[in-house]
Amino acid sequence: MTVYSGRMTTYVGIDFERANNHKGSICAYGLAFDDGSLEKQVIALHATMPAQEATRFHGITAEETANGAPFLELYSRLAALPEDTVLVAHDLKMDRRSFFAACTVWGLPKLKLTWLDSLKVAQRQLGKQNKTGVATMAKRLKMTIKHHDPSHDALVALAVVKHYAGVDPLYLVKD
Using CA atoms, how far apart are residues 49 and 69, in angstroms rounded to an integer? Predict the structure, then answer.
């Protein structure tokens, strides 16, 4: 548990990689925790999903997704997080939409989660005219990461919130 902006909360960085342009085509996820630990898992695509097309971005191959963990593993992992958990994504609109689209594809009910957008936190602190993407923020925070590795991108999201939490009110999105 950590105190950011006066709240005792469990913050977990999260990032998804998609196989193609379908919003629900999550092919990998990454989680980053306050203790510095990272979790990364390749996810199998649903049988109705178009093939892996985004390998050039994140390096995840069609063979890896064919042998990936079931989406239910990710779903169950998030459902089991402590009730006070805030999922921190760098571009919440994209990651949240992807997760819930994947839930629909897999026929799973929507989880009640609390989210925070570290991209918006960075933009409020640095101004929208400045670059605030994952790679730029990692450089700004002096982090060495492998961009498009979902666990590393999740770590950057969490680091942004940790870095700016003392000066920025955190606006949470609850499902």
Answer: 15
